[in-house]
Amino acid sequence: MLRIGLTGGIGSGKTTVADMFAGHGVPVIDADEIARALVTPYQPAYDEIIEAFGRAIVDDDGNIDRDKLRQLVFDNTQRRQELEAILHPRVRTEIHHRSLELDAPYCVIVIPLLIEADQLDLVERVLVVDLDEEKQVQRVGARSRLSEAEVRKIIAAQIERSERLRHADDVIENNADLASLEAQVEKLHRRYLTLARE
Ligand code: ATP
Predict the structure, then answer these.
(1) Residues near ligand 1 (Cβ within 6 A)
(2) Residues in the chain with pLDDT values less than 70
(3) Other CB atoms within 10 Å distance of the CB of residue 165
(4) What is the pLDDT of residue 144?
(5) Which ligand 1 atom minimizes the distance to the CA of 19?
(6) Counting atoms of ligand 1 from 1, which one is nearest the CA of 12?
(7) Which domains does the chain have, with CATH numbers?
(8) Confidence (pLDDT) at 74
(9) Which ligand 1 atom is at minimum distance from the Cα of 32?
């Protein structure tokens, strides 16, 4: 099974691209979705996170408030590492198990922190969704309540665009419209099917 690691900065179009691959019948594994499931009540990471970060991060319904958690770790390297130490090994294990269960020529694994969190050994190829920062700021701004300054701060905290591209085996350029994106996905889909057969 050929595993394609799909990554890119905030709002680069990872989900949109993953959905397009899914439209071609390609199985998609989403690290964010796994991480979200891990912190729900009765799941293994739930108690550990509350123990580490306190009950203040739990909302009235007993759910971990992921926005609060994000704020707590955003500017604090030590706290972020603490959270990652709880989540990342479990996300890795789950990705590994899910990919073993698949019966397909290849799969796409969406891992926003593929390079930052050193998860490259989970995949055979790295696919980066890339776009100009201005476009990125504009798209993220359009879909959230974040100010332009906040969006730029998040982008600045992420791995540099050139560094991400350095790890790329394939690049999808997402400055244009959805039709252009779909055309690139279709081309890569054919390429990955060929590679999977080799
Ligand atoms: P995040 O990092 O927050 O998980 P993401 O990388 O998954 O984001 P998407 O959610 O796929 O990115 O895209 C970000 C926003 O940009 C969405 O509102 C999406 O609909 C829009 N978008 C993505 N690609 C295009 C495009 N080519 N043309 C217009 N809008 C686009």
Answers:
(1) 8, 10-16, 112, 139, 143, 174, 177-178, 181
(2) none
(3) 13
(4) 87
(5) 11
(6) 6
(7) 1-27+105-198 (3.40.50.300), 32-101 (3.40.50.300)
(8) 86
(9) 4
